[in-house]
Structure formats: structure tokens, C-alpha cells
Amino acid sequence: MTDQSSQSQTGADTLLGRLVVERGLATDQEVDICVKRQKEALEDSDPNQSSLAQLLIREGHVTKKQIERLMPEIEEQKVSRQIPGYQILGKLGAGAMATVYKARQISLDRLVAIKVLPKKYTRNQDFINRFYAEGRAAAKLNHPNIVGALDVGRAGDTHYFVMEYVKGKSVFEEMNDNGIYSEKNALNIGIQIAKALHHAHQAGFIHRDVKPKNIMITTDSVAKLADMGLARAIEDRDAAEAESGKAFGTPYYISPEQIRGEVDVDFRADLYGLGATMYHMVTGSVPFDGPNPSAVMHKHLKQELVPPDHITKELTTGICEIIEVCMAKDRDKRYGSASELVEDLEAVLLGDAPIHARNKFDISSWAALDNSEATTRDELANIEHRSEKPLAERPLFWIALAGWIFVFILIVILVVMAPR
């Protein structure tokens, strides 16, 4: 065990001992005895017996479940002690790549959010580089619809990124609580996030992971784009080539070109992600689903999109066209910029047609419709043609004529043979 890890372990154990006593799980004396045995084990270089938690459990003072319940608070207090100038107030959430805490910046007496890189990734330089890249990318973006970056740094073995604290919920959380969004609300959120993306694109960054979990809605109904963890400078060719052949993004919302690991992924991947997100918002279903990520990504590449209004019948044609253009598999058929998308979203919100989407809309579908209509017209023409044949060319005409001749002859015979 290194000196640094040993000191870290001792610090954690000190917190654990104090919390165990405060919760009434063990007495001061019982904890002191376990701490003494822990020191003896450390002196004997026996790391398997050096954990205070293990000793407390083995002596029957606490259970494993009780220790597990204390661990989140221990982690929070460790972070608070390790990051100078901030007081940790609680955990906001945790994912595979980071844990986010609510904190108070002591110097300015304001609430902030602190993202901390998990310890298991601190030995991987690639993860560390990506973590700091997120901070640098966010710091270059100043927009009301993007979660602001305040600080990024390292304290001991803790890598942290301080962000604006957003009081509210993510789109993902709101859908879990309230179900699908109304078309009006979805359009309003879409407009705000499209503006955020336009700002990022103009600054030279692509987000690459637009999804419901990365869109925060404040209590004042302001939408904010969060988590620049996969953001990359558009002109960063070295990074693009290093990532070539790898799929970066979330399977439910990832663009076809990201799935293929193309080198020249650009802003249109973000438009696809926003389109997929809005699809989920207004239908309650992800655009493509499957038993595993590979199956989902295969559908993004090959399967046709079920139109949103086939699921939510009351949707207008306008919002459906916008979503379908955003999610075109061929990126050349998507919007030419996020600002074009903003214009169409605002138009539909006002009850007007999405002009840019109409210009981009796949005319092959209209061609197919024209062919279908042509077929119907041909069939009708054939029917009309059959009905316009001369009487002499119709079989029923001759049958009727023969019948009338027979009746006429019969009448003549009856008249001739009648008595005078």
C-alpha cells in the first residue's frame, strides 16, 4: 500500500469511526479497540485486515448493510474535505463516468454542482483527459441554455469540475414523472436546445450526446444543455482520427455516422440527437428499440422511422416533418444548421409551416405517392373505358335484343291466330 493510499484509507476510516459512534452503532471504546487493531495490521503490512469497516463487522459492532448506508455520507465528507473552498451538501446523482454533488461555494455563498471523476478512472489518463476536456469545452461556452462551467481542477487524487447549479429536473426525469410532453412544450424546449447547439457549433464544438438526461429544465421552465463529456472541437482532426471506428454516444439517440465511427462527424449529429430526443418527448417511445445496444444501433442504420403521429395521433404535420428531417439517415438531408432548425420550430409553434423541412423533405416519398395515385387513376380509367364501350360490343346487349325479338314474334302470332 502506498503512503498516499494509506493516508486516504486512514482519512476514510476516521470518518467512518466518527459516524458509527454518532449513529449509536458502536461505542467510543469499541471503535478505539478496532482502530488499534487496524494500526497493528498496518504495521504488519497486512492490508486485508486494515479496513476499519471489516474489523467493525467482524467484531459484531455493525452489519455490512449499516456500513453500506453510511458510505454515501462518508464519500460526501471526503470530497468536501478534499476540494478546498466548497462545502458538499449532498449527492445529486451518479453515473458510470462521474458523481455529481450539490455544494456551496464558500467565498461567494452560492450553490454549485461539482462533478467528481470516480477513483477507478483516476489511473486512466484517457478518462482524465476527457474529463478536463469537458471542463474546457464548457468554459468556452457562455449561453443561457447551456449549463455554465465555473472551475475545473485537482485536489489530491480528486479530479473535479464545478458547474452552475440547476434547480430543476432533466427531461428524462420529467417524462418519468409526468409522461409525454405536449407538442407546445416540446417545441419550446426544442427551440431553446437548438439555440444552445447553434451557439456551441458557432464556437467550434459539437456535443455528440444530446439526450433527455442531458437536458435540464429549471423551475422557471428554462431548458439547459448539460454534460459536455463527449464534446469535441469540430476542427480537432487528431481527436477525430483517434476515435475513428468507435461509436461515441448513447444508443437510443446516436446518429448513423457516429455508429459507423466516421472521422468527419459534424454538427448534424447533434441535430439527429435532438430529433431523437423530441421524438421520445412527444411519443413516449424511443425512435428505435431492441434487446441490446447493437440491435438498437442497427435499426438506426437500417430501419425506417415510424412517423411520430402514428403513435401520438394529435401531433401536427409540422412537428413530425421537423423530427423526420432531423433524423434523416443521410445527414445531407438534415437541416443545414441549428439556426434553420430554430426557425422551423418557431414557425410550427406559431402555426405556420416548417419551410426548411419542406425543402429538405424526401421527395421520393412524394414520388411514391404520385405513382400510387397514377395507378389508381389508371384503374379508374380502365373502369371508365370498359363502361364506355359501344352497346354492340357488350354481351348483355345481344341477350336483351334476342329477348325483345322473341316477345315481338310471340305477340304477332297471338294477334294472327286470334278469332275475328
From TrEMBL:
Domain Protein kinase: 86-349
Top-rank lineage group of the source organism: Bacteria
InterPro entries membership: Kinase-like_dom_sf (IPR011009), Prot_kinase_dom (IPR000719), Protein_kinase_ATP_BS (IPR017441), Ser/Thr_kinase_AS (IPR008271)
E.C. number(s) listed in UniProt: 2.7.11.1
EC primary class: transferase
One function term, GO molecular function aspect: ATP binding
Sorted UniProt keywords: ATP-binding, Kinase, Membrane, Nucleotide-binding, Serine/threonine-protein kinase, Transferase, Transmembrane, Transmembrane helix
Binding site for ATP: K120
Transmembrane domains' residue ranges: 396-418
PANTHER family listed in its UniProt record: MITOGEN-ACTIVATED PROTEIN KINASE KINASE KINASE 20-RELATED, SERINE_THREONINE-PROTEIN KINASE NEKL-3
This protein's name: non-specific serine/threonine protein kinase
